Amino acid sequence: MNPLSNAGVFLVSTLFGLYILAIMLRLILQIVRADFYNPISRFIVKITNPPLKPLRRFIPGFAGIDMSSVFVMLVLQTLEIFIITLMRNFPTPDILGLFLYSTVELVTLGFYVFLFSIFIMALLSWINPGQYNPVNNLLHQITEPVLRPARKILPPMSGMDLSPMLAMVGLWLIKLLLLDPLGHWAEGMMYPTAQVIMN
Q1: Alpha-carbon distance 25 to 19, whole Å?
Q2: Greatest CA span in the chain, whole angstroms?
Q3: What is the DSSP annotation of 49-112?
Q4: Confidence band (pLDDT; 50, 70, 90) for 194?
């Protein structure tokens, strides 16, 4: 690929990726019932409302999950991969494989959100323990559903809470043992006649 094509791929990946991340964060905040009066939550809601508000009239929620968010993320992720495929002169992807690969990519993104949220929260707790700010509050609300079961397995010892480390190891193992193989399988379905590495 020439430098111009590389720059184009980078731009597409960045723009699509950031907006998909914003919608993913909104979906996770809804699932964990986070504080939507938090200024960060308000910002996420504001930038993701344009595509989601109209769709909610036609796409109902399911089991507490905003399916309009899932739909928009899936469409954007599929479109991003398809555009990058064209820009890189890859073979035309199989539609079913493209859909499955996009789904795995979104689930992996959700895992990364929890993984990095736990890491950042643990880091902040060591740097500024006990300090309240909107970021700390939001990170706590996002990570608590993952850390709560981890604390039952590994309760605090001598004042040290090692549950974040256990949770991160568990999430990473799930990614390695489940999501990575699913991603390779879906990638193979996308390009059944050629070996192509997306990442």
Answers
A1: 10
A2: 57
A3: HHHHHHHTTTS--BTTB-HHHHHHHHHHHHHHHHHHHHHTTPPPPPHHHHHHHHHHHHHHHHHH
A4: low
Closest residue by Cα to residue 108 from 186, 8, 30, 188: 186
> Quick one: 138 exposed, middle or buried, by C-beta within 10 A (0-12, 13-18, 19+)?
buried
pLDDT digits (tens, 9 = 90+) for 36-94: 888 999 999 999 999 999 998 889 888 878 999 999 999 999 999 999 998 888 888 88
Buried (b) or exposed (e) across 53-87, using 16+ Cβ within 10 A? eeeeeebeeeeeebebbbbbbbebbbebbbebbeb
Global confidence as pTM: 0.88
What is the dihedral sign for C-alpha 42, 108, 96, 11? positive
Whether pLDDT at 141 is above 80: yes
Q: Look up residue 42 and give its amino acid.
A: R
Main-chain phi, psi angles of 154, to 5 degrees: -130, 85
